[in-house]
């Protein structure tokens, strides 16, 4: 259940009263919503000024349970059995309700429910995004269980009646005819300061994820980016610029660079990070300060990571936070493998792969090949990151090549590739791994008599 305090010394005021373990969850996610939708245990959303608290309520009473044993303490003779609501495909899902409570008067807390639109209430559905646009405007995204229909609902507070009004004129529908909406779910909206318009990543007509600009009260959107590449994430929205991460640079799906686009002249686009350290850094992420005056730029590869703080006004570096100088000195004395990125042609389409090559790699010799696979929808294994993991360990100690390949079903290369396995799991993504292995076996440095494959989670499914 949910409790609120004005300060640490004041008594707690109870907001909800019906919470039950593994049955009713208020303000915290159940297994499905934590693992697959929100990726967090919290289902609480404060308004920007702290007046309103929005929360979700999950009902798992009808959800089938799984049971497993947990061995907590050596002194216990018997393990504890955990009963977890865990819906499988086609099973009963948790039901979700959404509430907002005004916290100005803690002695009279009355949660107000906002119901899902009728177009999703007709069947099983999910609450998949909550975003405060202003202190009295909130957007909710609802998704049908089949996941090819989503609706963004914008709701305004009516102070005269202490209610929330969600006008049909402010509903924005997103659909897919080739697969599912979004990558893993519909993308979050980024609202302008007045809350009257927002920017959102969506599939364009060609099936590539790009940024679309909406007016809050109009369902027509205008794409402000375009191309046979994808916008990965919107990082910040200021009065003059929108900052985003994309894989446009050099046409490499596994790259990530920071761009900015001028809002009153969308032809004015600049790559902030592409040429800063072109050999060392081609996989970036960023975090912006409130208001967007400063940002942290994080380079994650292909060479050693580098973190720095920059000014948004001219993108100059203000402070180097981490250069990994000590790590560089340490690795100079270690036989490190080398990572390469390249592509092969399958079905007339470019598909990317990476290879971890052993130290002192000699292309005139032959090496055993281990294929490290995941292969799930919207996955990506071939990227420009610096990584030390089991693959680098095996390449270094066992003198083998470890390769990963992104075939049909993988992400960040358009919906045509990603949606190829829609309702066909275990088909094309498996066939492409086999065909990639055939092509790898013809490379002069691969021992075609010693090729293996391994994977965990969805990758284990692909290997089987």
What does this structure look like?
The chain is mostly beta strands and about 475 residues long. The protein folds into two domains: about 5-325, Dipeptidylpeptidase IV, N-terminal domain (Methanol Dehydrogenase, Chain A, 8 Propeller); about 335-464, Alpha/Beta hydrolase fold, catalytic domain (Rossmann fold), CATH 3.40.50. Helix content is about 10%, strand content about 40%. It is built from seven helices and 30 strands. Strands 3, 4, 5, 8 and 9 form a five-stranded antiparallel β-sheet that branches. A five-stranded mixed β-sheet has the order 26-27-29-28-30, with helices on both faces. Its EC number is 3.4.14.5. Its main location: membrane. It is found in: Apical cell membrane; Cell projection, Invadopodium membrane; Cell projection, Lamellipodium membrane; Membrane raft. Keywords: Aminopeptidase, Cell adhesion, Cell junction, Cell membrane, Cell projection, Disulfide bond, Glycoprotein, Hydrolase, Membrane, Protease, Secreted, Serine protease, Signal-anchor, Transmembrane, Transmembrane helix.
Feature tags:
Methanol Dehydrogenase, Chain A, 7 helices, five-stranded mixed β-sheet, single chain, globular, 2 domains, mainly beta, five-stranded antiparallel β-sheet, 41% strand, 464 residues, 11% helix, Rossmann fold
What portion of the residues fall into strands of 2 or more residues? 35-45%
- The count of strands amounts to 30
Provide the CATH architecture of the largest domain.
Answer: 8 Propeller
CATH C-level class of the largest domain is: Mainly Beta
Low-confidence runs? none
Q: Overall mean pLDDT score?
A: 96
CATH superfamily of the largest domain: Dipeptidylpeptidase IV, N-terminal domain
Rg over CA atoms? 25 Å
